[in-house]
Design brief:
about 5% strand; about 70% helix; 3 strands; GntR family transcriptional regulator; Tscrpt_reg_HTH_GntR; disordered C terminus; transcription; single chain; 2 domains; Arc Repressor Mutant, subunit A; transcription regulation; about 230 residues; mainly alpha
Length: about 230
């Protein structure tokens, strides 16, 4: 049986590993670490003042999140998608996220819906891509918070993580007409949620995701299909 001191050490290390994972997750989602970039445990441990054991724990957490790919006895890289993989993931999102949204609607409540409306307004005035990505992510993931799920919610979060880099690329491709459509869709989505119109909310959301997929399909230059051992950090 594990005694109290051993449990305390495990709890402490687990908490430290989770905090380190949070820091690395933020770097990846902000684009500071890019797809196919190699994660060198020794350099990372030195730069963060952490042990290699904590770095390994953080990488295990991020692999479960879909942000890191680890090849046994070889190394870890920031996860990347080929063009075909990205299209498939977006097709999955088109089907899963409307379902999650439908399940979420009854549990959202007035406070969350008011926050969604505020986010839709704030996004309209944003010009910085990173701020747009942060607010857009908050809006969509908040719209799912009313759902109680065993699998679906975690699956959608993982899909969002794996497509974060490509959402950034999509955002950089938007022209004035695209932005106007995007903002209209956000407001239509919030209205359908406020009205309790699950069918309407599903339609708007599916179209919203589909438009991103089709836009990316017209820009193969966004994707780098080199094997994961072709890019590394110094």
């Amino acid at each position: 049986m594990t005694d109290a001191p051993e449990r305390a050490v495990a709890s402490r290390d687990g908490g430290a590993g989770a905090r380190l994972a949070d820091e690395l997750r933020a770097r990846i989602l902000r684009g500071e670490l890019v797809p196919r970039e190699r994660i060198r445990q020794e350099s990372l441990a030195a730069s963060l003042g952490a042990s290699r054991a904590l770095v390994r724990e953080a990488l295990r957490i991020l692999e479960a999140d879909g942000l890191i790919t680890t090849v046994p006895n070889t190394g870890s890289w920031v996860s990347a998608l080929s063009r075909a993989e990205c299209e498939e993931v977006y097709e999955i999102r088109e089907r899963l996220e409307p379902l999650l949204l439908r399940r979420s609607l009854p549990g959202l409540g007035p406070a969350r819906i008011a926050r969604l409306a505020d986010l839709a307004e704030r996004i309209r005035d944003v010009r910085d891509v990173e701020q747009f990505l942060r607010l857009d992510r908050e809006l969509h993931l908040l719209s799912y918070e009313g759902a109680e799920t065993a699998v679906l919610g975690d699956t959608v979060h993982r899909l969002w993580n794996t497509t974060q880099h490509y959402r950034r690329a999509f955002s950089l491709l938007l022209d004035a007409d695209d932005l106007r459509t995007l903002h209209e869709e956000h407001h239509m989505l919030v209205k359908a949620i406020r009205d309790g119109d699950a069918d309407g909310a599903e339609r708007v959301l599916a179209g919203h995701i589909r438009r991103t997929r089709l836009q990316l399909a017209h820009h193969p230059d966004v994707f780098d299909d080199e094997p994961t051992d072709q890019r590394s950090t110094p």
